[in-house]
Amino acid sequence: MRRAHELLRPRTYLEIGVETGATIRLANQETLVIGIDPAPELTGPPPRNVAIFKATSDQFFARRNVVQDFGGRPIDLAFIDGNHLFEFVLRDFINVERNAAPTSTILLHDCYPMDEVTAQRERTTAFSTGDSWKVVLCLKKYRPDLKIHTLASPPSGLTVVRGLDPASRKLESQLDALHKEFIDLPYSVLGEDKPAALNLVPGDWETARALLAL
Of the candidates 49, 80, 104, 97, which has an alpha carbon nearest to the alpha carbon of residue 159? Predict the structure, then answer.
């Protein structure tokens, strides 16, 4: 994440799922930063360039104009790491893309599950990715225009999405149908080639840098 900030030098950065603030503090000092979390657990006051909103992401986007909050600038870089259920991640993606630019980058955390047990909607283990991985399948099927690659960064991947289209309403216009199609999908749909299903690529910085420069 630090290297991504250093490479992209985003004017604006949005983070969904702040927790202790460890990743949000990696942003450059000149970047305008917004963090969204219903129950942030910051270990100290945020940097002066960071504004924390105590709300769910759905509440935030319903109540606020993020471009306006960024002084008229779109979201240049976003990190989605909030609620890890498919429908929440999908809505987060939709809301972020709508307020981004074609050159922006969206990063999705935990979209390469370790195994079936930790990839379920109902959490039964200390570590869990939920079913956020289904978003990759959804985007591949319904938004083939996007550039989607999942870095094999431990423990459960980081998906890089480029080639955004803020004017697209393909996902939003059929949101209920997408919920019905993907929420109940079993882990077995990943088949014997999970890497191919989730567009896995090496997790080294050279690969990441090339993807971020696309």
Answer: 80
